[in-house]
């Protein structure tokens, strides 16, 4: 009885020393038998009341842009630019033009390597680059402003330095009159060239042409204007370019030209004479002699033959014999219609088309898909054409 009174007195004064006994443990055997349920997880702090809400953490310290740049390996920035995969850099640099690539290629070794990737330099299209010139009566029948030559040399130096020999296709405007030194420069620095759309030959010597062809051993396709003596070019292609298979002529194609082609390039597979002045004798020579020819394009050509009285007679329809010989080809494109706009232009210009009179894209088109130049390339677009002037 006295112990009971002392316990009540101690609880009243807050000085109880009696330990609080924990609840009895629930045996695992009873839980397995399903007699006593498992204890529930404690409730969330928010359910207990506002007094038990977790305290807020202090905000992270503010970082400047400079700090984030320095933390190149942190989760904020990922990899550094100089550590990015080359494939990613190439995909980015493909969207740049020649003027923009020039300073980018000088940032570091990795960027320079990415800037010279063959995926960027598959086609180097200078189709917008022209010379400032006037026609003359004396050979080479053209005079070119010295500033045009300096500008061309400057642009070629930049392009050849960045591409590092990875250009596969090179396109020049028909009114770009380069010299031997220009052709020599690009032939030395683009040994893997497979396709060339050649500008006018006026200022290039015979030795200059042959030397360039010797360096382009992998050349497969050539688009060229008419030249006074074509056999030496055809012979050079036969000796140096073992995989040569495509030829496009822009200008005149007579029996001398046709004989040179059939003699030195008997395995030619594709020939386009689109918008050219062609004699029927030259056409018959091609159809009879080129046994491996698969594709022939004479669309919008001015076909003619010499009559007995010495006058030129224009042919508007091919005879059955020519059509029968052409039927063995995989592709044969021809159009000599009076209703065709391109054919009307050929008649108006008497077979020597004045390209400058017509749309900028007109000279780039071809019915043969592999020879069609499509739109102007990104590497040397209109912006580059304006920004590459010479002071």
Automatic annotation (TrEMBL):
Residues 1-10 have a biased composition (Basic and acidic residues). It comes from the Eukaryota. InterPro entries: F-box-like_dom_sf, F-box_dom, LRR_dom_sf. Gene3D superfamilies: 1.20.1280.50, Ribonuclease Inhibitor. Pfam families: F-box-like. Residues 84-124 form the F-box domain. One of its GO terms (molecular function) is SCF ubiquitin ligase complex binding. Residues 1-47 are annotated as: Disordered. This is F-box domain-containing protein. The gene is LOC123181206.
